[in-house]
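pinned: reference chain
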Amino acid sequence: MTNSPDLKSYWMPFTANRQFKNNPRLLVSASGMYYTSHDDRKVLDGTAGLWTVNAGHGRKEIVDAVSKQMSQLDYAPSFQMGHPVAFEFAEKLSTIAPNGFGHVFFTNSGSESVETALKIALAYHQAKGDSKRVRLIGREKAYHGVNFGGISVGGLVNNRRIFPTLPYVSHLPHTLLPENTFTMGQPENGGLLLAKDVERIAALHGPETIAAVIIEPVSGSAGVIIPPKGYLEEIRAACDRIGCLLIFDEVITGYGRMGKPFASQYYNVMPDIFTSAKGINNGYLPMGAVFAHDKIHNAFMNGPEELIELFHGYTCSGHPAACAAGLATVDIMQKEGLYERAGELDEYWQSAAHSLKGVKNVVDIRNAGLIAGIELAPRDGKIGARGYEVFTKCYEKGVLIRVTGDTIALSPPLIIDKSQIDQLFQTIKDMIEATE
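pinned: its structure tokens
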């Protein structure tokens, strides 16, 4: 790259800014499965950017759709106004969603999707005259974005420790159990027992006070935690017994990551509301969407027609260009069979991931769909240091991975082929072995 930018003005998110700016890693272009770095190296994308670029980089169809939309209609308000492409995209999304999810509320990110889902859940009970239902149940080790609602129901301590959180929030225990290490797919142990904590919390506070339980079908930022067998089913059943809603946070599992459009379809467990973002339009523009079951939406539609049903929304909800990118993305995913691609690669991916069992300092491997987590033993008193070193070494060898603490989290574009899977895991193996 001929003209290197001045790095001091940009305060980077979730980054050790001083460390990064002393030795920056800049990506300047992308195509297919590869980024190009500022020093003109090809870098295999093992993370779909950030769980986002499911259809691969540089899709001309999306670029053309966005360009055409921007030249025709750059922006239109969504408060008491509308534009056709938002309605078209919502209808298109409803066709890939589970049956009964015919209503979509647009946001601009996963964090906003979570805030929206929580507010819809609370407002739903109010609309039904059930005003005592104000308590939300999240889970330890959960990540639900960075807004105040998200960090309140979330369970990652570094995201919570210096910020005040909402009242009336309880947490389920996490499902990362030592007896389930090196499980291929869903673990056998602990599912039914852990799910019973929903009713324990409800008994403590009163079942009539519980508004919603929110969980990730697969936890990403905590280090790829796969639900034990029977866990999601029992959570669903417990919510039904209590009379509260179940929210799935599908920001990372949505849009083909599990071999189905959504994890609810993969696990055959249906929530009442689910969030999405990231892969919704292949990362071309900021966007998210909340899917509400018809019964949720319809509960808001009983008052006078001239009254606003939900006092919530964003300036760029349903932005024309973001919707155009989303429509083009769905077309690509359907035409190329990418919603099913993770299922086709599942066995090969699983075998490749678990081939690292026995490599020094690898203490666990977890996988589901086209997702894998490789947990490394932390260094004494330096949690995350070993993972970060492997991350930087892989990048230097032309492979982009993600680390959360000492866990390598992998989620490549769904267009990945078997030779690229081999390259990804061989490089990771070599760099783990090259790290003290």
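why pinned: Residues 86 and 318 are 5 Å apart (CA to CA). The radius of gyration is 22 Å.
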